[in-house]
Amino acid sequence: MELAGVTPDPWQRQLLRSTARRRIVVGSRQIGKSETAAALLSHRALYRPGSLNLVLSPALRQSAELHRKVLATLRASGAPVDVRSETVLSVELATGSRVLCIPSTEAKFRGFSAPDLVVLEEAAALPLSAWQAVSPMLAAAPDADLVLISTPRGRRSWFADVWFDGAGWEQYLVPATDCPRISADFLASERRNLGDDIFRQEYDCHFLEADPELDAKNPRVFSADAVDRLLGSHVDPL
Long-range contact list for 72-80, CB < 8 A, 24+ apart? Predict the structure, then answer.
């Protein structure tokens, strides 16, 4: 990132230097999540010849935008970049390394094997089927890195389950107040515009019990807290 003219924030520097195989980021809007993903993918492509590097995004537009950031990072890195082939969603270097930015349809994500790096961008917005397609892909690549990066989208998601379970994952929690480029005045304005609940989700990294978009389509009768109490998970020990 520094070679591309961007000074990483502390969390970005830690994530980029980490050797953990499984990393998960719950981050605010506008903290540089996509730029971090682009830096991870570009570095792996440049310095591991023949590597297969995949990123899955919720929509075609997001995949194309991240691909542009990958190309910009590659070109700004200062390293010699000899491109063998390029499309709107992929690039292959002369070393055989590839970066593929894929929209989130399970059919398109299936079929790849033995990747070196898999990044799920805005992972909380990806369907469970996309997450389920990742595990078999990594079965033959025990040394592959898997990075999940997202803002939260309610407690009823596979992404929330991974975050709150936490076992085997290096976790990063990055609220907007940790980003020096986001001013207090801007955050105050956003709180007024969005309301407290959405603001807490989008900028404070709070997993709302209800995701407004999901619950509008599939409303719940019982809250998660009520279910937990019914099942005894919050019963105090004697």
Answer: 72/4, 72/38, 73/1, 73/4, 73/35, 73/38, 73/39, 73/42, 74/42, 74/45, 74/46, 76/3, 76/4, 76/5, 77/3, 77/4, 77/42, 77/46, 78/3, 79/46
